[in-house]
Amino acid sequence: MAKLVLIRHGQSEWNALNLFNGWVDTKLSDKGVAQAKTAGQLLAKEGIQFDQAYTSVLTRAITTLHLALEETDQMWIPEVKSWRLNERHYGALQGLNKADAAKKWGDDQVHQWRRSYDVLPPLLEEQSETMTIDGKTYPALDRRYQDVPAGEMPKGENLKVTLDRVLPFWDSDISKALKAGKNVIIGAHGNSLRALVKHIEQISDDDIMGVEIANGEPWVYDLDEDLNVVSKNILKPEA
């Protein structure tokens, strides 16, 4: 039996502004910092002893993981960062206000882009080192992505494409740690975690539209030796 804990990062600066974030590297808001610490306190109460941590290469997820682990006195555990755990890439929507996008394209269309399994957002037409979104450089040529295979740098993703991106890392690293009996914690993003949840729980393409992972609320799974879900518990702060 191994435990798997998933934590969506706390509120980011762009979450607070209601902007599409995606791969743009924003920091946690003050509220997000508090959410990350609360997540760690909830895990500390559970007494889970972790063996391995994974996160994306985006600051808001890394910071959330570190703050949560600090609350459990387990910052020392091994940690692996991978671009494959990044948030889904929102393409040309990145940096746009979600309410403004709804006014432009309609609520139903924006809902489809945000929540559907296989509907792509508008794609970026180009990616360059100098492209900026609200003053932040687009990461296409950022050196943190130098190991991304040729042709795999996204210009926009739906959840299906995000799952295709995440699964190779699940197979090569995360699942092996779990099968070895290690307790694993993953600090990542709403959609990269939804992709993992879809895979772990074998959720249908239609039903995954209704799955929402709240900021800073740990999802705790007990998994058997074949990584089947034995139990699941979502830890929520007291009201």
TrEMBL record:
The record marks H189 as: Transition state stabilizer. InterPro entries: His_Pase_superF_clade-1, His_PPase_superfam, PG/BPGM_mutase_AS, Phosphogly_mut1. It catalyses: (2R)-2-phosphoglycerate = (2R)-3-phosphoglycerate. It comes from the Bacteria. Pathway: Carbohydrate degradation; glycolysis; pyruvate from D-glyceraldehyde 3-phosphate: step 3/5. Its EC number is 5.4.2.11. CDD domains: HP_PGM_like. Keywords: Gluconeogenesis, Glycolysis, Isomerase. The active site is at H9 (tele-phosphohistidine intermediate), E87 (proton donor/acceptor). One of its GO terms (molecular function) is phosphoglycerate mutase activity. Substrate binds at residues 8-15, 60, 87-90, 98, 114-115, 190-191. Catalyzes the interconversion of 2-phosphoglycerate and 3-phosphoglycerate. NCBIfam families: pgm_1 (TIGR01258), PRK14115.1 (NF010713). Belongs to the phosphoglycerate mutase family. BPG-dependent PGAM subfamily. This is 2,3-bisphosphoglycerate-dependent phosphoglycerate mutase. It comes from Weissella thailandensis. The gene is gpmA.
